[in-house]
Amino acid sequence: MIGRPRETIFDPHCFRAAIFDLDGTLVHSEHVWEKAKIEVTARYGKKPSRALLDAYVGRGLKDFLDELFGMPLTPEMRRAIGDQIGAEADLWLDRLREPIPDARDWLIGLAEAGLRIAVCSSSPRRHIEGAIEMLDLRHVVELSVSGAELPVGKPDPLPYTTTLGALGLTAPDAFAVEDSLPGARAANAAGLLTVAVGPGCTGPAFKFCHLRAERFADLAHAPPTATGAR
To answer: Which family does it belong to (predicted)?
Structure first.
């Protein structure tokens, strides 16, 4: 029956690939992006509310800027403001970006078990590559996809379907690891088994995900049967 959760046996070794989100999943960096958004939009006389900032965690800048300014911006203006936000984030990311505890070890364990590893993020490519270097994952991350380079980003499934296409795989071959609702919804809409890991991920908003945990360390103790809609 559509919409009803059913039991899903989650064994990561049954998959050919794992696709990881970046910000909030592998690295703490959302606070840097928040700072950059506030600093840059203040130059235009705008002050994003706490609710608006929270609503766009894990998402690209296009819809955030349109909602903040109360109208669809021209592509040129959106690009100009987005470039400024990215440049502002550049000033802080190397100093303030931190690894998510145990995330790298979990990812490396999957790679050592033979799974292909990809990163699917809303961040600009240079920030994705910088985080991969910081985490010393260049040798295991096969490819990365930036939602900033696509017509639409998360929660649209396009970033994940693009990642699957680049891997030459279909949805049943891979699973996604996310920490935000927009990202989890994007992965789920792409047909991927979705693992939600992070503060709040065991709450009711994430009940559509197949496996949920507050931290990666909890996944080692997760029951073999996860509940979710698939």
So the answer is: Belongs to the HAD-like hydrolase superfamily. CbbY/CbbZ/Gph/YieH family.
